[in-house]
Amino acid sequence: MDQGIELVELSALTAPGVEIALIDIERHPHLEDAADQFLEPDERARFVTLRSPHRRREWLAARVCAKLLAARKGLIAGPHEARIAQDRSGRPALVDPAGRAVTGITDCSLSHKGRFACACLGRPPIARVGIDIETVSPRLRSLRDAFVNPSDAMEFHVDTDADLALLWSLKEAYSKAIGAGLHIGLKNITSNRNPATNSLRVRTLAGRVAHARHVVYSNCVVAVCFIAQ
Amino acid sequence: MIGATRHYEIDIDKVDHMSKQLTEEEKSQIYDDIKEFLSEELDVPADQITPQSKIIDDLNGDSMIYLELVEMFKKRFDVNVEVRLIGQYFQRHPIYTVGETAQAVYDIVERGDNLLADEDKASV
Question: What's the ipTM?
Answer without folding.
Answer: 0.78
